[in-house]
What does this fold into?
Amino acid sequence: MLFRPNSSSGVPIYLQLMEQVKHAVETGALRPGEQLPGIRPLAEELVINPNTVAKAYRELEHEGVIELRHGAGAFVADTARAKKLTDKLRAAQAIVSAAIERLHARGVTDEEIRRLFEAELAGIAKPAKTGGDRG
Amino acid sequence: MAEPFIIETADLRKRYDGVEAVRGLNLQVPAGSIYGFLGRNGAGKTTTIKMLLGMVRPTSGRASVFGLAADAQETSVEIRRRTGFVSENKDLYDAMTVDEIVRFTASFYPGWRPDLQQRYLRAFELPLHQKVKQLSRGGRTKLALALALCRGARLLVLDEPTSGLDPSMIEEVLQALVSHVAGEEMTVFFSSHQIAEVEQIADHVAIIDRGHAVLSGELDTLRERFRRIQLVFDGDAPQMAFRAAGVVRVDRNGRVLTVLSSAGADAVLDEARALSPVSTDVAPVTLKEIFLETVAVED
It folds into this structure.
């Protein structure tokens, strides 16, 4: 199974699932046009709430990562948006990995880096993230 | 949807011989949710469930299920008719065989689902010709759950459905619940003192302590809101009374100030900036930590 959210991590399960889907798209494990598992089979497989899977899929659709085709299921978006997302993330990944390399060189541990990222993200004023009126 | 909340209680109370088992409980269980009712043993979970199903009369306050009053004779019969219930003790007729109790139970419910009966008897590997009293504890729980699921009820109320089960059986029961909810239009309300299973399958949660809900809401929202903020200072951490809403507790320990917030980190960080900490860390908080913090606060 491609996805493996950890229910006791403190991070909402739908966010973990979204990240894991994006990661799969980014790495090419899931390609544009390919079908994702249905909500029910995935909920059963991971033994998580089907509403949680549905929420993750809805949010991913808002972000243009996947398409929900009524009655047919969820598919990795075939559009330029998905590619743009992939390109954007690739570029971002290069920045992050360079930063991490430099931090490692200074002896900063992974756990410390994780906490620093979290603190920085929490400290920066962002537009309220509600509903799905983005994009 | 007929009613936004399948279960609703307002200031619900139950006093037994001078002891208040439930004291001012407010609950709102949305239709279609898997609602985890989390609390320590003796927190008032079973008493609450019995009041919802008309088996115990509230001392005061209001409880409704499907919009029907839980404490009136006629409506509580209707509530029980529409609800699949598994009691804490998995009460079943011991003298019957599995096959007999299934047919016996089915005869009471016009909405009985033979398709689900077939599915769950097979999935739970229940021995049809064995007497109920010879079943293992796990077998008994699975039988009770199967009988509740097959009724085609729109609401399942489960009192500690996994107590006494080994981890693989717990996973089996949780999987059956998740799969059942995914296939049917229904709501599950289950009590538990196991944080792990609540956070695994619930989308809504109420933490009950000493008879009232200390915290309730959508689980993902709680996870997004709770943050532990750690501030490190050059010298001793200052005495600081945060004005930010949602500060659950502040611990001062040497140069470190740790703030637990139930409303995100931003407001706390804004206030903390004026104190010029040398380092700031923000970390998510697990349901287990939330549980321990909110339950301990009253001690």
Remarks:
- Chain B has ten helices and 14 strands.
